Amino acid sequence: PTLVSFKDVSKTFSNGVTALAGFDLDIFAGEFVSLLGPSGCGKSTVLRLIAGLAEPTDGSVAWPEARSDDHRGEIGFVFQDATLMPWANVADNVWLPLRLRGVSRRDAQDRIVESLALVGLGDFAKAYPRELSGGMRMRVSIARALSLKPRLLLMDEPFAALDEIARFRLNDDLLRLQGELRCTVVFVTHSVYESAYLSSRIAVMSPRPGRIVAAIEGLSPGPRA
Ligand code: ADP
Ligand code: ADP
């Protein structure tokens, strides 16, 4: 089934920049799709449209099977920077999306523990962000995105700021996670290598204005470590 369907979408910002035009894409439940393209081709804009953080200027972004218009609880968003709150410990950082939905710290406890275990940080609940490596901070940010048990995980160049080795490890962890959770992932990257390693399908975008120019399908994701 189709989770999200873009039909002839365009997006022009108030400054006159057209980020997307004639953009078509279906995202299928359970797949790991990469959006691959150079900086500025509109990849982040696509994620923001999926998340409802922006509205299309023209065309439609639809959730064909959805029962309501509120998709917030179904989406986990991981940004390029881990964007953790420095004054809060790891567990409280992971609590944030649940907290915004009115879930108390006590009621969130099981979810927090579960999410941290998934990313291999079960022992770091009480640590503070400054005590962690870049890769660990990114894991916290992934755990935070998973705390709502999203059906759809949106990742915007999540590993761009990490060194090669941390990046390799996280790639394999992400594959394992997706295999376990069976959630749908949309992964934005400008790395050909990463997109081929991670995803079952690559949607290639070209810039000015951003649109899909090729699709590479039937890839088998890398080894599940
Ligand atoms: P990518 O994620 O592929 O680097 P973006 O979606 O961030 O691309 O941006 C696509 C284009 O839209 C770029 O030219 C960018 O400068 C422009 N853009 C993005 N967001 C805004 C905004 N809020 N206002 C004006 N222009 C924007
Ligand atoms: P080799 O080709 O000799 O195995 P590489 O440097 O390509 O050397 O890979 C070394 C190890 O890192 C291998 O176990 C490989 O599976 C793993 N690896 C390579 N690329 C990635 C990647 N993008 N993400 C995760 N692991 C990777």
TrEMBL record:
Q: Which UniProt keywords apply?
A: ATP-binding, Nucleotide-binding, Transport
The record's listing under InterPro entries reads: AAA+_ATPase, ABC_transporter-like_ATP-bd, ABC_transporter-like_CS, ABC_transporter_ATP-bind, P-loop_NTPase
GO MF entry, a single one: ATP binding
The domain of life is Bacteria
Xref: Pfam families: ABC_tran
Q: Which Gene3D superfamilies match?
A: P-loop containing nucleotide triphosphate hydrolases
> Which CDD domains does this entry report, sorted A to Z?
ABC_NrtD_SsuB_transporters
Q: Does the keyword Ribonucleoprotein apply?
A: no
Q: Where is the ABC transporter domain?
A: 4-225
In which family does this protein belong, per the annotation? Answer: Belongs to the ABC transporter superfamily.
For this protein, the record's PANTHER family field holds: ALIPHATIC SULFONATES IMPORT ATP-BINDING PROTEIN SSUB 2, TAURINE IMPORT ATP-BINDING PROTEIN-RELATED
Name listed for the protein in its UniProt record: ABC-type nitrate/sulfonate/bicarbonate transport system, ATPase component
